[in-house]
Amino acid sequence: MSMSMSGSGGTSRLSAHELTLAYDDRTVVHELELAVPDGRVTVIVGPNACGKSTTLRALGRLLKPKSGSVLLDGAELASIPTRKIAQSIGLLPQSPSAPEAITVADLVSRGRQPHQRWWQQWSEEDERAVTDAMARTDVTDLAERPVDELSGGQRQRVWIAMALAQETDLLLLDEPTTFLDIAHQVEVLDLVRRLNHDQGRTVVIVLHDLNQAARYADHLVAMKEGRIVAEGPPSEVVTADLVRQVFGLHSVVVPDPVTGSPLVVPGAPYHPTNGADAA
Amino acid sequence: MSGGVSTTTVERKTVGARAGVRPAGYSLVRTRFGARRVSFLLHRRAAVVAVVLVLLLCLSCVAYLSVGESFVAPAEVLKVILGQPSPDELVVGTLRLPRMVVGLLVGAAFGVSGALIQTVARNPLASPDIIGVTQGASVLTVFAMTYGVTSFTVLPYLSVTGGMLAAVLVYVFAWRGGLHATRFVLIGIGIAIALRSLTTLFMTKGDYLVAQQAQVWMTGSLNGRGWDEAAPLGWVLLILLPAVAWAAYAQRTVSLDDSTATALGVRLGHVRLGLVLLGVVLASVATGTAGPVDFVALLAPQIARRMTRTAQIPLLCSALLGAVIVVLADLLARKLFAPTELPVGVLTAAVGAPYLIWLIISSRTAGAGK
User: Fold this and answer.
1) pTM of model > 0.95
2) Where do transmembrane segments lie in this chain (chain B) (predicted)?
């Protein structure tokens, strides 16, 4: 099931064309071209402030393009009613916040919002989706607990459950592992891969850890200063050259002993005996 | 479920191995209108609190009608309310009842208004009396008073206009490609201060008697209010009832952060504008009727939420609690220093100010409510 070359063979429901994004007058992303391959896990990676989160927000219509466009099924995102978009694209922002004292089940249920009306606040479909989302993220036992009382890892699983309950074909996650310890990071990323595998959902994740990106991506997009530097399967994209170009870091790229995917090992750390000749 | 006749069911979530997950604490109310299925989520604790508050309100009302310059036995009060002949008809039915109804409606309007504006601003400090709405109403009213307008049938229109204008001003200044909650509150506080000094200016310029009358109005007073004021207020509230029902649902959708809410397909700008507009109209109408009865809009929603422990501020309970607060406060205002009657706003402020301080001190974090 190897993906042919640069992903141009597959289909893409969500894409960006000549996308330029700016905050006030500061342009953050320059004329970006990106086609998100359907049914795959795309990871956007890059150093801080490279515009990766900004790009994701634009893909999820949270940010209006300064110029260029984002297309969903061929239609410009800006022309589709936001509720309609929410039935196709789910997005979990970087630090979502919940109202005080809200319970887990209540928060996950909010994911059903785009499928509800004020006179139709709860359907069997809603119940099935919420139950399923909570089971998949393993938060069913926490259903009646207030979200504020959970640990970071549990809370993140609850937020992901909310996004899952939305039952969209496309799922965008903005640095879902940022505040988690290593075990929970792996847990969340595994969960995302499983969702992609079991349900064929298209996932786009923004990560800053290149090794995690290489491990979990089908399609890797490396960004620097608002532009895409390289994209494709991690095995082709991740090289010592790219790491130096994108992150400005000297490294050795070896095969990951577990997965065989590229593993970036940074150059020798500072040490009194070799400190003098460190670049 | 046979077609034709609508069947309504209320379901409690049953905890069992195969039971589906529903929002904890809610009961599902399902019915159908013809072919259309209708379902509502009802927060059980909020429903219980609402019933308790209705009982409390009834008790407060009976107490209000009984106590005064002359005491009327509750049994006689009930007779008057039920329309049976009673020797206390004049005191209870003509003097106390209309004033109580005004207080009740004003309290409910302030309660809902505070709940809506606090929800949109995501800040328990944001209420119409903090962000300039009641001050806007005051400015125009006092201005008119100093130019000799004293009719209580004209003044309410002026307050509504003033309140709306102030809100527009706040909105315009706070808008910068979007409505930022904190900026909205801070701009509101600034405008409130500016308007208050403008009011003071008019009062100093106006003649002594007018100033005194304006002063009483500005503390919020139910003195001399009757059916003439209750009827229009009642009508306005009745007309706004469907909007309030919509708001109760819409409130739920704006309680998450902006990004998440937008990602869930909520048209944040529209919903917020709708909620604020409704809140401003309610506060302005109430202010027009009884003057700015301070702190009710601030207090009622926060206490109500603490009672119901819901994720968002409960509208119905806020309305009921607002009504209870104003009725009880006016009862005390009439009785405490009898025969001198205090403006009801003095009482609500006396309770509200310490509560405000407590609210700030007890916030777990500096940014609580955000």
Assistant:
1) no
2) 46-67, 97-117, 129-148, 154-172, 184-203, 230-250, 271-291, 311-332, 344-361
